[in-house]
Amino acid sequence: MEERKWLDIAKKLQSIAQAGLEYSKDKYDLERFEEIRKVSIDIMECYTDIEREKIKNLFAGETGYQTPKIDIRAAVFHENKILMVKEKLDNRWSLPGGWADIDLSLKENLIKEAMEEAGAKIIPERILAVYDRNRNTNILFPHSVYKIFVQCKYLESKFVENIETEETGFFSVDQLPELSETRNTASQIKMCFRYKDRPFHEPYFD
């Protein structure tokens, strides 16, 4: 797909520019790296639906060597159903989760997200999979993202109104709601069901 090819090129240019701006000292080199960054933004603007200012803001705070962002997802099972939340941004459903906070461990992030989004108390148990986001969806995104799916033990829940989600529920594998595919796909949810009863199965990764 042409859009994906050009997005990959733009991301590589952005990575080169970001590293150059961090480590170069020569003022002329810095100017060249700024120009490379502008070219990467031009390409992204042409091949995505994201506004130019938003693309610029996404990269403005990025410094140092570029690395993937981390998106965590809690696969919480109860009576052979999986816990999901309805996102306010698109009125579709996802596993509790989101960007990992830098001051929390993976377990702490999962516990926090499950409580904030679903009002659920959980115990993270094992990693099921680590996906490269852009290799597993046709919805393009300017950053590289690793998505970590973790099986969690359900304790109890009481949904509390919050700014991110509007309701929560448990769903069987053959009755999934309309999914927020920027957050999780049907194949990823089905993977969670498939691996949950295989305690010795090694985590999947791209």
From TrEMBL:
Residues 67-193 form the Nudix hydrolase domain. CDD domains: NUDIX_ADPRase (cd18889). InterPro entries: NUDIX_hydrolase-like_dom_sf, NUDIX_hydrolase_dom, UDP-X_N. It holds the Pfam family Nudix_N. PROSITE patterns: NUDIX (PS51462). Keywords: Hydrolase. SUPFAM superfamilies: Nudix (SSF55811). GO terms for molecular function: hydrolase activity. PANTHER family: ADP-RIBOSE PYROPHOSPHATASE (PTHR43736), DIHYDRONEOPTERIN TRIPHOSPHATE DIPHOSPHATASE (PTHR43736:SF1). This is NUDIX hydrolase.
